[in-house]
Amino acid sequence: MFLSGHASQCRLLIRGGDLAKSMSRYLVDQIERNVLVQVCLHSEVVELGGERELETVTVADTRSGERSAVPARALFVFIGASPHTEWLEGQLATDDAGFLLTGRDVQDGALAEHNGDPPFFLETSRPGIFAVGDVRSGSIKRVASAVGEGSMAVRLVHDRLAAL
Ligand SMILES: Cc1cc2nc3c(=O)[nH]c(=O)nc-3n(C[C@H](O)[C@H](O)[C@H](O)COP(=O)(O)OP(=O)(O)OC[C@H]3O[C@@H](n4cnc5c(N)ncnc54)[C@H](O)[C@@H]3O)c2cc1C
Question: Which end of the chain has a smaller Cβ tally under 10 Å, C or N?
């Protein structure tokens, strides 16, 4: 919606088949009413082209694989919300989506190393290991909150050391 106020035409590419699946209804309605925004479902960016600057974006249909190059002067990427925590599997408790559980969200069954006590705020299922920012289950997913949690964790590490 913001970009459509600055461009003659915007294409919103989504890999899935339904904008409403991960977006509030009021936003979907605004987008669908906006004649400057063309919603392209089942679409994935696979290639960028241009000599000195961006000229084309090649888009593949996620169902057929068919590719088409569309002219474009700018590309705004809005992806990147999956936690990369596979390597911690079995080490730290996570929620169903793989985000690390901290504090009171750590389930009773994962508290063995805490001797049944609740972990500190931002502390994971393993005493002395803290998680902050996007990777933490329930976090706000904003730069300011990630930075703020980071600074809080420093103090909490000292509290953990003092409690040993
Ligand atoms: C497209 C997009 C737009 C956004 N726009 C805004 C916005 O306008 N305003 C706003 O406040 N927030 C915005 N956010 C959210 C914001 O980017 C995040 O909340 C913030 O970056 C979280 O910081 P972080 O340090 O927790 O995680 P990240 O910034 O994701 O940093 C985690 C780092 O850890 C690295 N890493 C991962 N695994 C490993 C490993 N095994 N070993 C070593 N390093 C590893 C990653 O490469 C990454 O550099 C946006 C997010 C996205 C994806």
Answer: C
